[in-house]
Design a protein that fits this description.
The protein is an all-alpha fold and about 400 residues long. It has a domain of about 70 residues. It contains 17 helices and no strands. The model has no long low-confidence stretch (mean pLDDT about 90).
Length: about 400
């Protein structure tokens, strides 16, 4: 089971990047009237809540994917540590550094503090962000993932998931201490940390013999998995909407805003802050459960219709490009804006022209796919040349 691709995770990754690009970034910069025409609660669900569940989903997938790989579950030798760091470093940093250069040149960060820029270069901007101000747009997420990966190395050294859970809580308390005493660690670290740990725990359950036995028993009766999945989909979505409404009304009444980072700036107190973050995390987890169960249901139906085909292939191909889509979508849209406004003279900031911007989204995925392919080819080139020399 653990060696198979999980199309539901690929779909969750695709849905999350579409939320970031289509529901968050494009309306923010190109069609503000898109949200003006909606009631405030719907705007909250699509925008404020949208960015939370999208980024939370990415973090969950990262934790899940790391633990799903057997080689990562016990990084207890220098060789394993070297292999892990090399693989993650080559996967993240070369493309990230290119994106960082482009952001400095084209997104208005040319005057960034040199020390803060160096922190961005090594992926530690989230640690020092409270001292310098908000990290670079979009790229803040890489800073979070880098810290989470370093934490995962330590957790994997423990081996047992029973040890990982209490130690992960102790690590959270340590980072909270750094924040309260030294003014380090940006708030977004705390927003998604428990989601990352939840991804690790979920992967542990998914790969356990007990889970395999239960699923084998359930799958013997073909109708039962469909009924269970459909029930989980409906229940999780219903609770998600209930909690979202409670979250929206409560925060608006008490603080006059639903932006949690603004509320935390008011120093509401450690217990109240903890409650709000836990409520945020619970909503993110419910969204993840809803999305995974819904698409598990749909994928299961597709497998009945196309039993001899790998229905996950198309989702895997699209999901392959999502990292580059995230890194470069702002850059793509900047150039796209220049083409539409300066060359074609279109009013892309009007709602009527919103669809013209949306038409570019498939091209963002295409360009990102090609960039990722080229990057992987370059990274694999040294090993291919070594193999060629050995053959000769």
């Amino acid at each position: 089971m653990t060696d198979k691709k999980i199309p539901e995770l690929d779909i969750l990754r695709i849905i999350s990047i579409l939320i970031v690009v289509v529901l968050i970034h494009i309306p923010n910069d190109y069609a503000v009237s898109f949200y003006i025409g909606l009631d405030q609660y719907t705007g909250f669900l699509l925008h404020t809540s949208g960015i939370d569940v999208a980024m939370g989903s990415f973090v969950f997938i990262s934790g899940f994917g790391l633990y799903l790989n057997k080689n990562n579950r016990s990084i207890n030798t220098l060789e394993k540590l070297s292999t892990f760091l090399k693989k993650r470093f080559l996967r993240i940093f070369p493309l990230y550094w290119i994106a960082l250069i482009l952001f400095v040149l084209f997104v208005g960060y040319s005057n960034i503090n040199i020390i803060y820029l160096l922190a961005h270069v090594v992926g530690l901007q989230i640690i020092v962000a409270p001292l310098f101000g908000p990290p670079i747009l979009t790229l803040w997420f890489i800073g979070i993932i880098v810290i989470y990966y370093l934490i995962f190395i330590f957790l994997s050294f423990l081996g047992s998931i029973k040890r990982i859970i209490p130690v992960s809580i102790a690590i959270l308390i340590f980072f909270a201490f750094l924040n309260m005493v030294f003014g380090l660690v940006e708030y977004r670290f705390f927003f998604y940390y428990l989601i990352f740990i939840a991804g690790i725990i979920s992967a542990s359950i998914y790969t356990s013999p007990q889970y395999n036995k239960i699923t084998e028993k359930i799958n013997r009766r073909k109708a039962i998995p469909f009924v269970i999945t459909l029930c989980v989909t409906v229940i999780s979505f219903t609770i998600y909407l209930i909690l979202s409404e409670y979250y929206y009304i409560t925060l608006n009444l008490e603080y006059g805003t639903t932006f949690l980072q603004v509320i935390l700036d008011q120093n509401p107190g450690i217990f109240e802050s903890t409650f709000l973050i836990l409520l945020l995390d619970l909503r993110i987890l419910l969204f993840i459960i809803f999305t995974l169960s819904l698409f598990h249901f749909l994928v299961s139906i597709l497998r009945l219709i196309f039993p001899k085909r790998n229905v996950g292939t198309i989702f895997s191909l699209i999901a392959y490009s999502t990292f580059c889509v995230y890194l470069f979508h702002r850059i793509f849209l900047i150039f796209y804006t220049v083409i539409l406004m300066d060359i074609l003279d279109l009013a892309i900031y009007e709602r009527l022209e919103f669809n013209i911007v949306l038409l570019f989204v498939p091209f963002i995925f295409l360009f990102s796919y090609l960039i990722q392919k080229f990057s992987d080819w370059v990274l694999m080139l040294p090993s291919k040349l070594k193999m060629k020399k050995r053959v000769e």
